[in-house]
Design a protein that fits this description.
single chain, alpha+beta, Ribosomal Protein S5, domain 2, 2 domains, eight-stranded antiparallel beta sheet, six-stranded mixed beta sheet, 8 helices, about 25% strand, binds ligand DP6
Length: about 325
């Protein structure tokens, strides 16, 4: 009886154009295309060992043994790998994040990208970038974007085959920084998976989805031309549209806290004052404040002065998922 093991590293990503809502919840086929950058310095490292001696899959994250729905979600991705590799062995999965647990950084993107790469390598599969991205998507939609490097677009696609992510520019293309203002480290009450299902209960969602290709193209061009002003406007607009869906879903999802709004107002005022900076917010209260790298210290200092900001984490543009 032999064991087969592999370790992979992946970065989380922050979306400029958001994925919110699915065409197919089970397959995680996103309702609209999305665009993000990987976050350098923040990473998940995952080791998968297929072991014929195991009676079931087992999972530990940051040293804590997990079961229930979290293990079931990991097992679903492992099932896909087992099917592809014609394997019946269970696996031991060890995962560590180097960023603080509960810092409000969505770790499902880096988690399922690292899991997909480690599991497929441990199973002896040699998947190309597109295949890995699709596999990661089945674990978490945003994880598809943590497979390729740098600035990454996830295609909406009407089938599993059509919905994968690809790089639109390498990390060195544009030296952007993400200053993450942590407002609350509490675990969110309603996670993204449930949130995607609620999106269709908002009467605004069809309008948001219909206009997504236009925003995506505007953002893609702004990134390619390093045009910060256009980038800032479309990133904030897209964020507001997603939060409008959340707030008008039934039941409503209101992720913002008072400090979230204080940061939004401050960032807008700084930009009026000609500091190149903009914000975006995921399914939580923390605010990702984007700026060209040369302004990161100014932005970080200003964010720390806002009451309610507990800490600020700073990340640059990261590479793709890789084997360790
Ligand atoms: C608000 O990828 O976290 O961060 O597929 O259920 O894991 P699941 O959802 P997830 O959704 C991402 C939502 C978002 C926007 C984005 O990253 O595009």
């Amino acid at each position: 009886m032999t064991t087969h093991s592999a370790t992979a590293i992946a970065h989380p990503n922050i979306a400029f154009i958001k994925y919110w809502g699915n065409l197919d919840h089970d397959a995680r086929l996103p309702a609209n295309g999305s665009l993000s950058m990987n976050l350098a310095g923040l990473e998940t490292r995952t080791t998968v060992t297929f072991d014929p001696g195991l009676p079931a899959d087992q999972l530990s994250v940051n040293g804590e043994r997990l079961s229930g729905p979290k293990l079931a979600r990991v097992s679903r991705l492992l099932d896909n790998v087992r099917r592809m590799a014609d394997l019946e062995t269970f696996a031991d999965v060890h995962s560590e994040n180097n960023f603080p647990a509960g810092a409000g950084i969505a770790s499902s993107s880096s988690a399922f990208a690292a899991l997909g790469l480690a599991a497929s390598a441990a199973a002896g599969l040699q998947l190309d970038e597109q295949e890995l991205s699709r596999l990661a998507r089945t674990g978490s939609g945003s994880a598809a974007r943590s497979i390729p490097p740098g600035f990454v677009e996830l295609l909406a696609g009407e089938s599993h085959a059509e919905s994968y992510a690809h790089s639109i520019a390498p990390p060195e293309h544009w030296d952007l920084s993400d200053c993450i203002a942590v407002v609350s480290a509490e675990h969110k009450a309603v996670g993204s998976t449930q949130g995607h299902q609620l999106a269709e209960t908002s009467p605004l969602q069809p309008a948001r989805v219909a206009d997504a290709p236009r925003r995506l193209e505007l953002c893609r061009q702004a990134v390619l031309k390093r045009d910060f002003q256009t980038f800032a406007e479309v990133v904030e607009h897209d964020c507001q549209l997603m939060h409008a869906i959340m707030m008008t879903s039934q039941p409503p999802l209101i992720y913002w806290q008072p400090a979230t709004l204080a940061i939004i107002q401050a960032v807008r005022a700084w930009r009026e004052d000609s500091l190149p900076v903009c914000y975006t917010i995921d399914a939580g209260p923390n605010v990702h404040v984007l700026c060209p790298r040369q302004h990161r210290q100014t932005v970080e200092g200003k964010l720390r002065e806002i009451p309610g900001v507990a800490q600020v984490l700073v990340a640059g543009v990261g590479g793709g998922a890789r084997l360790a």
